[in-house]
UniProtKB/TrEMBL annotation:
Gene label: potA
EC supergroup of this enzyme: translocase
Family: Belongs to the ABC transporter superfamily. Spermidine/putrescine importer (TC 3.A.1.11.1) family.
Organism classification: Bacteria, Pseudomonadati, Pseudomonadota, Alphaproteobacteria, Rhodobacterales
One GO cellular component term: ATP-binding cassette (ABC) transporter complex
UniProt EC number: 7.6.2.11
ABC transporter domain span: 20-251
Catalysed reactions, as listed in the record: ATP + H2O + polyamine-[polyamine-binding protein]Side 1 = ADP + phosphate + polyamineSide 2 + [polyamine-binding protein]Side 1
The protein's name: Spermidine/putrescine import ATP-binding protein PotA
GO MF term (any one): ATP hydrolysis activity
Functional summary from the UniProt entry: Part of the ABC transporter complex PotABCD involved in spermidine/putrescine import. Responsible for energy coupling to the transport system.
Keywords attached to this entry: ATP-binding, Cell membrane, Membrane, Nucleotide-binding, Translocase, Transport
Protein species of origin: Shimia abyssi
InterPro entries from the UniProt entry: AAA+_ATPase, ABC_SmlMolc_Importer, ABC_transporter-like_ATP-bd, ABC_transporter-like_CS, Mo/tungstate-bd_C_term_dom, P-loop_NTPase, PotA-like, Transp-assoc_OB_typ2
């Protein structure tokens, strides 16, 4: 570990080197219940990683431990190879943005931004230059003289971002930073944040419980539930190859059917649904063995009802059309399939695609690789 004035400082990590590390981290607030159970996570420099999960799953707790406001009950958290317990907070180089961004109301915007630099004992002219750069970065250069109350919600959020970036941190933590904004502004800010982070090469840990936000912004997403990472993967892998029922259900729209595994042949599982019908799927979860109960997951856009397009030899299911919704670019149809009347299919609107009618009886099918047999 490198030292400066007798204090350990961050090592210079190269790109691709591990920068942020959680190793077997546990956290309990009351000495009894673990709210973070066994967290293992490594991030290279420059990565934009999102922690996504339901309320109470431990996301903020993980961020707080990384920031140093909470300490881990067990395990180790490292930054640039150095255990953060040994790094004083002002040397961690972490910028933070939270949902209630708490700009100081009695200070101007420029003073708000200057504050973290004063704390770091930076000289006046350098401070002014950095504040100007940070304001320009979020396109708020003309607003330095105003007070927070004189800005819109989106502008305040931009200032909060500038304040987190003003001291050029290597790592930025953001906890639901866009939660208070309307949809349109959110989408604009999502784009700005990811652009800034990538252009500046900042490593970012972003927390949200909005799955669309997670999928569109991130290099990788860690899906949290019950104090554990259920899956950690890039957005497309997460959506297309969920590893368990929780992730399949939590990310994107998903159809579920339940049954028993009859056999597994050549990597394809034959599953008998509870109403007796047979389907073909990919055995994904470890628990999928002959005789075991399973829950299968199939995305709405992977279901086919045009007989000519159904692959020969695969099993098909009878379905009754409950509802047909014309959405312009796609048709969204709700079916009753094997007793599940919330089965959704999505079809691209094209001249050759039949518009279904409620009450109509159809046959549906899919490629076995698009149907995933998961934990029951
Ligand atoms: N300071 C605290 N003292 C005691 N328990 C806490 C404290 N902070 C959080 N908890 C508990 O720890 C668990 C995880 O909380 P955490 O805030 O990390 O969840 P989260 O995933 O950020 O949820 P949300 O999406 O609602 O923000 C919850 O059960 C919560 O009640
Ligand atoms: Mg939280």
């Amino acid at each position: 570990m490198r030292e400066e004035n007798g204090e350990p400082v961050l090592a210079d990590a190269n790109a691709n080197d591990v920068f942020v590390e959680f190793e077997r981290v546990q956290k309990s607030y009351d000495g009894e219940n673990l709210v973070v159970k066994d967290l293992n996570l490594t991030m290279p420099k420059g990565e934009f990683l999102t922690m996504l999960g339901p309320s109470g799953s431990g996301k903020t707790t993980c961020l707080m431990m990384l920031a140093g406001f909470e300490t881990a009950t067990h395990g180790d958290i490292r930054l640039g190879g150095t255990s953060i317990n040994n790094i004083p907070p002002h040397k961690r180089g972490i910028g933070m943005v939270f949902q209630n961004y708490a700009l100081f109301p009695h200070m101007t915007i420029a003073e708000n931004l200057s504050f973290p630099l004063e704390v770091r004992k930076m000289g006046k002219s350098e401070r002014e230059q950095k504040v100007k750069n940070a304001l320009d970065m979020v396109e708020m250069g003309a607003f330095g003289g105003r007070r927070p109350a004189q800005l819109s919600g989106g502008q305040q959020q931009r200032i909060a971002l500038a304040r987190a970036l003003v001291f050029e941190p290597e790592l930025v933590l953001m906890d639901e930073p866009l939660g208070a904004l309307d949809k349109q502004l959110r989408e604009k800010m999502q784009f700005e944040i990811t652009n800034l982070a990538h252009n500046l090469g900042i490593t970012t840990v972003y927390v949200t419980h909005d799955q669309t936000e997670a999928l569109t912004m991130s290099d990788r997403v860690a899906v949290f539930d019950d104090g554990r990472i259920q899956q950690l993967d890039p957005p497309d892998t997460l959506y297309e190859q969920p590893k368990n029922s929780f992730v399949a259900q939590f990310i994107g729209e998903n159809n579920t059917l339940e049954g028993v595994v009859k056999e597994i042949n050549n990597g394809i599982a034959l599953v008998q649904l509870d109403d007796g019908e047979l389907i073909d799927c990919m055995p994904v979860h470890d628990s999928v063995i002959p005789g075991a109960r399973t829950r299968v997951s199939i995305r709405p856009e992977r279901v086919e009802y045009n007989k000519e397009r159904l692959q020969e030899g695969v099993h098909t299911l009878k379905a009754e059309v409950m509802e047909f919704i014309y959405m312009g670019d796609i048709f969204r149809t709700r079916l009753n399939v094997a007793g599940n009347d919330e089965f959704i299919i999505k079809t691209r609107n094209a001249p050759d695609v039949e518009r279904l009618k409620p009450g109509q009886q159809i046959e549906i099918g899919w490629l076995p690789e698009d149907c995933r047999a998961l934990d029951a």
